[in-house]
Specification:
Helix content: 25-40%
Strand content: 15-25%
Mean pLDDT: 92
Shape: globular
Number of strands: 21
Oligomer: single chain
Structural class: alpha/beta
Distance between the termini: 28 Å
Length: 535
């Protein structure tokens, strides 16, 4: 194994939880290119020992003899699952949230402005000497689709009083940006109506947030990685707006080495990756075996909250009157060219498509180019789209926790169509492989929250939203392990030890979801190396 951080350990007395990769049977996963688990055991009730040698499971059985000098990790009858993956994160943005002003509870523009005013006042109180006005204030998490009032650049400038203020929406598809911050970020001066910067211009500005006064490039990374390991996460697919395949080896060599990372690349950096002949699945040099090359990421439409997701039917109240059906950010012919370039260069592709029109264009591009990969989000899909995904072997990379925030907005802006929104059951029953993620920071980097949302489809006391689309706990778990099945000889030594059985019988989906949401992870191993231990 190429991982020079790989370790050897004997895990004593662990109960193996049965896992079917992708939420499907092993044959279905293999048919679309995922690692099959045909020889994996079905899980066992009695505890067994698991030997990991140089990062790979080499033996499974009762009371394996301990080799001389072999490290031992006592599972003490805990349940063992393949280490979890979050298949869609923006790690830099997620790490930065640990130092940002939380706006998620605000239910109006006025409340957001009150939070900004209070934060600036606290800053002045805590820094009585020296000028702190130059340091930027960055907030995150507002969702304005259901507000009675609207954002205003003039109002934000009034409370900012010269301080650079940048407020990111909860879906990260727009920012409410003060005039001072606009100048620092190279954004247009803007109008006085809503002060929002949306979609492509906003995505282009996101990497420049790290250059604002008072920000630190690596702020929050260690906390983010430690928190992920504590939830049993062993790997992420990172779609940060950056040259990720260059940045991650540097981070790992600074000790930020708790996870595997599959790095996404955006069109503006694609040629550099192709010139370096980095192909899908290749280990990136200098990453100590933890970083592999991931897909080309193409954002083809907007988002639900901003009403810029590209849909076949118009929005009742468009976010932008010039685009009543949302925004197709990448024209179909350009999308086809990008997918062809990536496929010719040996890369997979990950196409962001939320609205049903954008999904249709994405599938047409997959068909025309023979590309392999995923549709990211797939929040509104027609039965024909689902059937096409099966035929093409396109993975549905979905973020169930989004529905907890989006159900009310979807009911308002997609009236009569939400039967096909977040349609996990339709996708899975048709034979589409699911890959669950968070889209952190849009939702927390917590696979157990994602699984619980997929199983119950409610995050509060209300009845489940479209319960006909619920998954079982076993299906949700199988869609959270990077298509790895039950731990077996030959499996990667990526393991999460749990204090409870995640698949224990439940009377209701709500009960199953509560168990998943509250799951305590006792230990996490990446290639046999302990990255979290709370036994």
């Amino acid at each position: 194994m190429s991982d020079d951080l790989a370790a050897s350990v004997l895990v004593r007395q662990a109960r193996l939880v049965p896992v079917r990769p992708g939420g499907l049977g092993s044959g279905a996963a293999a048919a679309v290119g995922g690692p099959a688990a045909v020889d994996a055991p079905a899980g066992v009730d009695a505890p067994v020992d698991v030997r990991i040698t140089d990062g790979v499971i080499t033996a499974v059985g009762p009371r394996l003899p301990r080799a001389a000098g072999e490290e031992v990790l006592e599972a003490e009858g805990r349940w063992a699952v393949p280490g979890l993956w979050d298949n869609h994160v923006h790690m830099g943005q997620w790490a930065a949230t640990f130092g940002r002003l939380n706006l998620s509870a605000a239910v109006s523009a006025t409340e957001v402005l009150d939070l900004v005013t209070a934060a600036l006042a606290r800053r002045r109180m805590s820094h009585t000497s020296g000028d702190r006005s130059a340091a930027a204030l960055v907030g995150f998490g507002f969702r304005d689709a259901l507000w009675a009032d609207r954002p205003s650049l003039a109002a934000l400038d009034a409370v900012a009083a010269g301080t650079p203020v940048v407020l990111l929406s909860g879906d990260v598809h727009c920012g409410w940006v003060s005039s001072t911050a606009r100048a620092l970020l190279g954004l247009p001066a803007g109008s006085q109506d809503d002060g929002l910067v949306r979609e492509t211009p906003w995505f282009e500005a996101l990497p420049r947030l790290a250059t604002l006064p008072g920000t630190t490039a690596d702020a929050g990374y260690r906390e983010a990685l430690t928190g992920a390991a504590a939830r049993g996460v062993v790997g992420v697919v990172d779609f940060e707006f950056a040259p990720n395949e260059q940045a991650w080896p540097e981070r790992i060599n600074r000790g930020l080495d708790l996870l595997r990372v599959r790095t996404g690349v955006y069109p503006d950096h694609l040629q550099d990756v192709l010139d370096r002949d980095l192909r899908a699945g290749m280990t990136v040099l200098g990453s100590r075996g933890l970083v592999t090359m991931g897909p080309l990421k193409v954002i083809t439409d907007g988002a639900l909250n901003t009403r810029t997701a590209h849909c076949r039917a118009p929005y009742p109240v468009p976010g932008d009157p010039a685009h009543p059906r949302g925004v197709q950010a990448v024209p179909p012919d350009e999308l086809e060219i990008l997918l062809h370039r990536a496929t010719e260069g040996g890369l997979k592709v990950a196409v962001h498509a939320i609205g049903d029109a954008a999904v249709g264009h994405a599938l047409a591009a997959f068909t025309a180019t023979g590309a392999y990969g995923s549709i990211e989000h797939a929040q509104l899909v027609t039965p024909d789209d689902v059937a096409m995904m099966v035929r093409l072997g396109v993975v549905a990379s979905v973020q169930p926790a989004h529905l907890l925030d989006d159900r009310d907005v979807a009911d308002r802006v997609w009236p009569g169509r939400t039967r096909h929104a977040f349609a996990f059951r339709d996708l899975l029953d048709a034979g589409v492989v699911l890959a669950l993620g968070s889209d952190a920071p849009v939702a927390p980097l917590d696979p157990w929250l994602a699984m619980a949302a997929a199983v119950h489809r409610s995050g509060d006391d209300r009845a489940p939203w479209h319960p006909e689309q619920q998954l079982t706990a076993a299906e949700a778990l199988g869609a959270s392990t990077d298509r790895r099945g039950t731990l077996a000889v030959g499996s990667a030594g990526d393991v999460a030890l749990l204090d409870a059985d995640p698949l224990a019988p439940s009377v209701t989906p709500a009960e199953a979801a509560a168990r998943l949401r509250g799951m305590r992870v006792a230990a996490t191993l990446v290639a046999g190396r302990v990255t979290h231990d709370a036994r």
